[in-house]
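User: Hey, my collaborator sent me this sequence without any context and asked if I could get a structure. I don't really work with proteins. Can you help?
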Amino acid sequence: MKNFLIYCKLSKIYICIGLMLLYIFPTISNNIPFNDDFLRINYAFGWDHDGRVLSSILMKMISIGNKVLYLSPLTAFISIILISISCFYFSYKLNVRNIIAINLIPLGALITPFFLNRINYQFDFLPMTCAFSLAITSATYFVYNKINIKNCFLLFVMLLALMLFYQADINCFYIIFLFCLYIRLKKETFNNIFKIALIGFLISFLSIFLGKLFSSFYIKPGNNSYLTMLSIKQINIIVENYTIYFRYWFNMYNKSVYGFICAIAAFSSLIILFIKSTKKQKIVFPILIFSLLFFISGPLIFFNPPAVGGRILISFSAIYLCLFYCLFLLKNKYAFGLIFITLFCHYVQAYCAFNIQREQYELDMNIYTSYVRSINNVNTKITNVNIIGEPPFAEITKNTSQSFPVTMAYHDIFFHRYTRLWNMNGIFTKYGLVINPPIFDRQIVSNEELADCKNIVEFNQLYNVLVKFETIIFDFNKTCPTEAKYILNQLDSKNKIMFDKKLKGNLELISLIPYRVSLLDNVIFEFNESLLNVAQSDANYFFIHFFEKGKEEYINNGKLLNEQIKIGDKYYFLSPINGATWDKIEKINFGFYNTETKNTSAEFSIYLK
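Assistant: No problem. I've predicted the 3D structure and written it out in structure-token form, which is a compact way to encode the shape of the chain:
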């Protein structure tokens, strides 16, 4: 232990920690809750119901109480330190002595697209990091120390703890374990390596069995997939599961420079490892490759339905760690150059992914808060929410997907329908709405009801709102295309100008929509030729005033409102500000004004329902 601490000090571990913090900097600065983070912020519950008992205990201890508190980004800082130490231990035991290699090899464990998913779980990140660090440390420790009762017991305890932190990380243990056995084979006999492997696998099986048994007392039924029973009938399910995993991995890297560079780095690593291997190592090299490929998914292929997701497939991080070690075996400028290019691509990809998350999060939050306003403005008790169609996605995704197809997969992880429902539920809880979890596309109303504009209680540019019994429906398909409903009142009968229900007449009002201002902060007035012909003889300017409920004076809301605007063009006006929001606005007055005579030739009012 003392030698390892000296190793960390001489190798300047703070450089590695700094590079890792640079990698996760966007998520620390964004500080965006993800998925069940929303509910944990409100209810402070743990992970016992998933069988992750130690995760709950750890987070409650850090929170200094019996509740899991919101401690991000402190937990991210602690996680980075744990990953750095465990990866440094891996390098220490594998006899890496080059200071650059020592600090760059650990980055392999961090830069995979799948690890990005973990980083954004603000509550789960630390417990999952504990499991990942235990996988690396336990495998390395057992292979490079004597086989005795003490070390066997330590391996058992570490793997049991891993199972009670996050079970999917057991695949990482097997990957590091097999890789370390292969490296040690260079100076050991087959008999000794076989003995270490046999004892290690037996202890791991015992840890898995007891971990599963202990966690089963806490697991809530229905929270996990079920094992597929081995039979001729079920082999097709296993093959289909592996196909799903392969397609998932392939889509991460397909048809891009990023994927090409990753492929070159991976194949180069394996070639270097093979070249540097001894004759007896080369005999088992195919077995190593097959084993690593199997343990990317490992026992997960036996589950039905298969567990597919970024944080679950963390075994890629263990693979990357091993591949980075292999690249440094070459010890020349070409290997260092390839590692630098690979790291640079992953850093760029990570920053793109984090920016996608931020842009989509801001868009989604505006949509979710507009849901809350709509629900609060309905004079009916609402207990259910149904969403028809698909809420919009941020345009930034399209811009980055060509260079980094992985960003689309990452986007799907973050903004999958299931994830969006979690986020919506969290927002509803935050605003004190007692509502059942939202659902997508459950057709409780017919297409005819959706298309009948009489049933619409609110219109905006994104969706129509319907209410049936205690269910509110947000129709993103806009089955009824009618624009927002306003009551138009003619105040001056001398210059009568007619408007229809769609506000399509001599005056076109575009995007004047209550409760959409958070997404589009402008009101747009467009004047056409027929309107100009009516007003031209009497007026040369246009005015607009906003009135709050119960107040006579109009709101002065910025640069353009309440100024006299020359007609003949399309004008953009700021939405009501200075403390006024759309739900407070009762009336909008607009009309035509003559600057010479100081007379108002025509004035109209829009009353907002």
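In plain terms: The first helix runs from residue 2 to 10. You can pass these tokens on to your collaborator as they are.
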